[in-house]
Amino acid sequence: MSLTELPDEELIVLSQEGQEEAFGEFVRRHMETVHRWMARAVGEQEADDMTQEVFVKAYRGLSRFRGEAPPRAWLAAIADNAVKNRYRARGRFRRIFAGSADASGAPEPAETARGPEEHAHAGQVSRFVSEALKRLPAEFRMPVVLRDLEDWSYEEIATSLDLPVGTVKSRISRGRGHLKRLLAPLVDSGKTWP
Amino acid sequence: MAMKGDQTHPALLPDFLSRLHDGDLTATERAHFESHRDRCGECRRAAAEFEAALSLFRSSSVSPPPSDLAARILRRLRAAAPRRSSFGTVFGINLKWAAAFTLAVIAALVGFAVVLEREAARRAILRQAPIPVALEKGESPASAASKPNTPDARIRPHMQAKDAVESRAGESGAFAPDASSLRQPAAENAPPAAQAEEQKKALPPAREAREASSEASDFVSRRRRDAASPGPARSLERPGGEGAASASAASAEPGAPARLVILPLDGGGNAPAIVSPGASEALSDLRGREYFLLVEAGGRVREARVDGKGLRHARPRSKESLESSSAPPSVRNLRFTPGDRPRRLLLRVE
């Protein structure tokens, strides 16, 4: 049986035994998904680097994977921690260099000044959404992404992030509330979109 | 289940809108909210904006990953965690062979050290071995070895055969029977650095060596003839080598003066000389015998025995003990030159 036919769990076991080819297959299998998560969570500009970081951390943490959760959930947990670490560092950077954009506010003034007309087409919408997501608190990002973009159940997310289901629901609802406020300009302008 | 928070405008609560979006409201909650929304424009607008925002969020597309991202990830993985090679290869070096090579080097070093140690021990033994060299009168081998540079105890290991034989014949009357026996042991005693130089000096060309050996043999023959013929006791008080002793003892005639060889046994330096007149003639009947003597500081023989028992300590013995000595009176009555302390001597009658 070739590696492409093996389930994720067996690929991880083989990887733990030292077969790099098995982890290579695991990377190829989930690379696109992780990249999409990262593009949503941190933006496309950093998605490549963050995707690499997630898989490097996964490889280094192979020995800690006990199979209690699906490998995909394990990857999501690693991605969630990577996002939090990235924005924790970014927050320090912004605190040090005063005058940088504040993560808690609305999208970039330059972006909002353009008006919704400039975001009429899909690419512009995507960029606006991406900018809005960057202002979403880090702890809300992966739960919202997994729930609203990847259609994971609350239970899956709770297992993956090792959180109670109630906490996951709370974080998702609060994250959605942030998104509503952040995307309000785009929503309002959309009423007039052709 | 009662609505949480604002009972008047529930759509202002994100949690309520999230539950509404997920379909988690109970039938009662949903019916109550729908009736309210029909009457409340603010809640209607809030719910619509919430759904629109999530719709925008879902509809926004992202670019697919670069085609080489997987390869880049795998390269980074290899760089971050180099391949765990099996035991035996590190930095391209096979540890098994490296270990075997290391063991071989260690074994070679240990073996070389053992060989060196044995060689050093062999040389030390050779240094301590008796050397057939001529000593001055009364000089013990131990004292001679302790004073190698003194003129009286000079050892001439590197002399050429002819010179060595003539020199010894002139100095002590005792000599080594063969020139080669003079050269070889002495050469081994020489310092390693100087040994090669000494051997180089000592070893004459083959022709010279043959001539020297021939002359030495002739000289030995002459010495043996001289010793066999009656003559003055010139060997008296002249201790010599073993070769001289055996040669003179074997060829002596009855009644001829004996050759008395005195060797110090206590390492106390030169042996005292015999001052008794006519000692050589008196002891001529005792040729071939040896006596161990304990001589008082005044020169009188305190004790004389055919064996060395009891002479180790120079303390007085009883009269009975002295009389029970097997040495004849001619030996016990010998007189030596006085010294500053008692001496233990070996008297060899030849």
Q: What is the strand tally of chain B?
A: 6
Q: Please, how many domains of chain A?
A: 2
CATH overall fold name of the largest domain in chain A: Rna Polymerase Sigma Factor, Chain: A
Strand % of chain B is 5-15%
What distance separates the N and C termini of chain B? 140 Å
Strand tally of chain A, please? 0
Average pLDDT over all residues of chain B: 67
Structural Rg of chain A: 18 Å
Strand content of chain A: under 5%
Q: Briefly, what CATH class of the largest domain in chain A?
A: Mainly Alpha
Q: Helices and strands of chain B, in N-to-C order?
A: HHHHEEHHHHHHHEHEEHHE
**Helical percentage of chain B:** 40-55%
How is this structure best summarized?
The complex is a heterodimer of chains A (194) and B (350). Chain A is mainly alpha-helical and 194 residues long.
Mind sketching the topology for me?
The complex is a heterodimer of chains A (about 190) and B (about 350).
Chain A: H1 8-16, H2 20-42, H3 44-60, H4 71-96, H5 109-114, H6 122-134, H7 138-149, H8 154-161, H9 165-190
Helix pairs in contact in A: 1-2, 2-3, 2-4, 3-4, 4-7, 4-8, 6-9, 7-9, 8-9
Chain B: H1 14-22, H2 27-39, H3 41-59, H4 69-80, E1 89-90, E2 93-94, H5 95-128, H6 141-146, H7 161-171, H8 179-189, H9 192-202, H10 206-228, H11 242-251, E3 260-264, H12 279-282, E4 290-295, E5 301-305, H13 319-323, H14 329-332, E6 343-349
Antiparallel strand pairs in B: 1-2, 3-6, 4-5, 4-6
